[in-house]
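# step 3/5: fold
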Amino acid sequence: MKKYMAPTYAEALILAKNELGTDAVIVDSRKVRVGGIFGLFGRVMTELTVAADQRPQPYRGARPAARPRGATAPSGAPASAQPAPTVPQGISADAAPAVVHGGPAPAAAAVPQGVSAAAPVAPQGVSAAAVPQPVAGAAASASPASGPAPAPEPAAAPAAAVWPALSDAVPASPLSGIPLPGSPASAALAPGSADLAGLRREMADLRQAVTRLVEARPDPAALLELKGYARKVYERLLDAGVAEGLALAISRKVGTHATKGRALLRAELNQLMGPGAPIQAEAGRRRVVALIGPTGVGKTTTLAKLAAHFALERGLKVGLITADTFRIAAVDQLRTYADILAIPLYTVERPTDVHQALAHNADADLVLMDTGGRSHKDEERMAELQELLAEAQPDEVHLVVSLNTNPRDVRRMLERYLPLGVNRFIFTKADETSAPGLMLNIRAQWDLPISYVTDGQSVPDDLRPADSVDYSKLFMGA
């Protein structure tokens, strides 16, 4: 792991690529402040944490060596015409096996560099003591009687003495840790075993994580192309929490000049966010709308804003239903709003009670239903919510998402809530976050329209239909 620091992301990336090559992997990036006095007046820099590729290098082949002692060229042929046996790099030619007189010289077996060839190598899983040892003087007996007998070779070292050196010199195989079939260790990875199923889940999660990481990283060459206003847009979008790849795609379309670029940016953002989809309520036709979402996202306050808007500003007959009986203050809070607006409120204790509540609101133009906050990890509470929606059969289901939500939790939360019949998003607490780009990231991945955006606690003033939101000002901060 190495860290590189530069004024911009692109410059830091170039430093990393120049030293570690194109196979380097970016692990993390963050903004840090360097210099200054007591943390003030420092310069903001980009710090990249990069991992180098540590894959082993391939084994280099043997190089030619001199002819072993005792090997002669066949009669009638020049010595230069005979192919010399190859000896692995770093192995003395004297240690190579002798060649029978008059026959072709066999190719020497490849031996890892730095390992003596005097003794045979024991295969993996075979005892070194079981490997036959060469007999002293065998090379001499292979020579013809007419020729002078070569000096006897020294006795080979015991295989047991050579094996430790070999195990140290040769890198371990990547497959050496895999249990052999039939071994006790392989039984744990048998098909259908719990360990194998867990391993597969971990591999699938790792594959998805790597895929998301690779897809989110922008092309370094494209970053260098951003100039002028396009560069400013890219940096502002990153500060707003927009995903890097999405920020780059938007920035490349706005051009380098600010005057023309602002109009292009506004048009691009409006296209990505899509047309708004506010509640479609009208007099004489009852419409049931349910608000769902995790705890603490502002469902009850948003419901009160909607009730005030349609009752006071649109003049429609509104009824309220609450199933949020888990929080003591939730019913009291909503009842206070209902009393102020002079509209009825009905409480639902069980999912089956919703039919009676809807019957009491038979003549209402709009029925707004509040639900209790559920953690997407709580299977029992999520099942209750699903049963409630099945009984109520609402015309619209709005998923309320706080822009303060941790981006790491958003994907799992949406994957759990969206199958419940969600057909619109409501984004809340736009005034409390410095990263409203979460809204853009969600819209880029899930093609559901936005109905409203809230940016304060005032009822009903801090409720914005999606079509009236200036996304350029929201994401760019100006």
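# step 4/5: annotate
Residues 73 and 81 are 8 Å apart (CA to CA).
# step 5/5: archive (pending)
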